[in-house]
Amino acid sequence: MTAANSTPGAPSQSVYPVTRDEGAEREVILAVIVDNEPGVLSRVVGLVSARGYNIESLTVAETDVEKHTSRITVVTTGTPSKIEQIKAQLGRLVPVRRVIDVSAETDALERELALIKVVNEGENRLEAMRLSDIFRARALDTTHTSFVFEITGAREKINAFIDLMKPLGLSEVSRTGVLSIRRGVEKD
Is residue 21 in a domain? Predict the structure, then answer.
């Protein structure tokens, strides 16, 4: 039986496996609490990238000196089933203490920090300063021909500020990546 003469509703005769719809991809923010020891970061990143997912943002720092733990925040996208698979596999790594899907939390705060250099003169300088006030960006450094702004907030806010600075002489951007924490008394 060929594809040309197959009947609707009949099972496929293909030798290739039929992939089922796993749902739409979504962005996910995972907080991975790990033992602070050599090689842990590469194991976590390797596990995510081995599944074919791009890491859009990655931050890591020691968060408890006494317990010797670090927090790795990973932003990636994937189908719900693939995200659940990644979370389960991360949880099985020996140095991983806990995996939290921050994007699923209703009481989580997310912020990012960016340093943005703008090189310009004349009216563009005035417009850059006016926009920095609107976005609550701080001028950390200023010369006769440049500014370095510090801006903190949601990624959308930072992206909007960057887009507005492009025609005004945007020269360089340095970003931290997403940081997250839950509101209230509950600990991660």
Answer: no
Instruction: Look at residue 1 and give its three-state secondary structure.
Output: coil
Q: What is the pLDDT of residues 58-96, one digit of tens each?
A: 999 999 999 999 999 999 998 898 899 999 999 999 899
What tokens does 171 get? Answer: 């020269």
The dihedrals phi and psi of 18, each to the nearest 5 degrees, come to: -85, 125
Q: What strands lie across the sheet with 96-101, from one edge to the other?
A: 55-64, 69-78, 26-35, 96-101
Q: Output phi, psi for 30, to 5 deg.
A: -110, 130
At 25-55, the pLDDT tens digits run: 889 999 999 999 999 999 999 998 888 888 9
Boundary of a domain, candidates 104, 134, 166: 104
Q: Which residues contact 57 (CB under 8 A, 6 or more apart)?
A: 73, 74, 75, 112, 177, 178
- SS3 for 101-143, per residue? EHHHCCCEEEEEEEEEEEECCCHHHHHHHHHHHHCCCEEEEEC
Distance of alpha carbon 151 from alpha carbon 114, whole angstroms: 5
In this structure, is residue 88 part of a structural domain?
Answer: yes
CATH number at residue 97: 3.30.70.260
Confirm if 31 and 87 have CB atoms less than 8 A apart.
Answer: no
Half-sphere exposure at residue 164, Cβ-oriented, CA atoms within 13 angstroms: 17
